[in-house]
Amino acid sequence: QVQLVESGGGLVQPGGSLRLSCAATGSIFSIYAMGWYRQAPGKQRELVAGITSGGNTNYADSVKGRFTISRDNAKNMVYLQMNSLKPEDTAVYYCNAVVRATMVGVGDYWGKGTQVTVSS
């Protein structure tokens, strides 16, 4: 079994910064792509940023230049540094990982989400 647990969300003023963390634990053999998604009220879940095991990254146009995704393969962690936050960044942020788990094979796993609220 694989679990993803996010942390670091909260309330921040416009222009502020937050750093989200996600820890992958369990019977992990290897982790392929990792990413952050978000879902605002009344909207579909959308990809915010992704990173491959080799460190290649991609970002939604709306966050390019403001958010940075990174990962620590030794710790099975992925991070999202969010700067210059805007009210429209308010959403629940979810961690996602494609994991090869021992005895189970490759699966797509999600965390439970962490709330980010940008408001004055």
Characterization of this structure:
Helix content is 0%, strand content 61%. The protein has 120 residues and is mainly β. The strands form two sheets. Strands 2, 4, 5, 6, 9, 10 and 11 form a seven-stranded mixed β-sheet that branches. Strands 1-3-8-7 form a four-stranded antiparallel β-sheet, with no helix packed on it. Strand 9 and strand 10 form a beta hairpin. It is elongated, with a radius of gyration of 14 Å. The model has no long low-confidence stretch (mean pLDDT 96).
List keywords for this structure.
single chain, about 120 residues, mainly beta, 7-stranded mixed sheet, 4-stranded antiparallel sheet, about 0% helix
The span between the termini is 40 Å
Q: What's the count of strands?
A: 11
Radius of gyration from the alpha-carbon trace, in angstroms: 14 Å
Question: How much of the polypeptide forms β-strand, as a percent range?
Answer: over 45%
Q: Give helix % range.
A: under 10%
Shape: elongated
Q: So how many helices?
A: 0
Main beta sheet strand tally, sense and closure: 7 strands, mixed
- Average pLDDT, rounded to a whole number, is 96
State the order of secondary-structure elements, H for helix, E for strand: EEEEEEEEEEE
